[in-house]
Design a protein that fits this description.
This protein is of the alpha+beta class. It is 25% helix and 32% strand. The strands form two sheets. The chain has a five-stranded mixed β-sheet with strand order 1-7-6-3-4, with no helix packed on it. The protein is globular.
Length: 81
């Protein structure tokens, strides 16, 4: 199964992504999984818990794939004056 995750801004940290997608229950669990070498970014094991991920990248964890895509910039989400 592939999850499409929309980044609202320039990037998201790997640990935050794992938690936001529900693939792990907590930030601590995300850190542990990265430490154990169970998370891949663009086909390579990622050892940086707070790696900055950007649109176009792919994260693989526990048989799940997360494709990152761009969303509206945070400034575009603010209501007009």
């Amino acid at each position: 199964m592939t999850i499409v995750f929309v980044i609202r801004g320039e990037f998201i940290q790997l640990d935050h992504l794992l938690k936001a997608t529900g693939l792990v229950a907590s930030g601590g669990a995300a850190h542990a999984e990265v430490d154990l070498g169970r998370v891949e970014v663009d086909g390579k094991v990622e050892s940086r818990k707070r790696a900055k991920l950007r649109p176009g990248q792919r994260v693989t964890y526990a048989g799940q794939v997360v494709d990152l895509c761009a969303g509206a910039p945070a400034s575009a989400l603010a209501p007009p004056d």
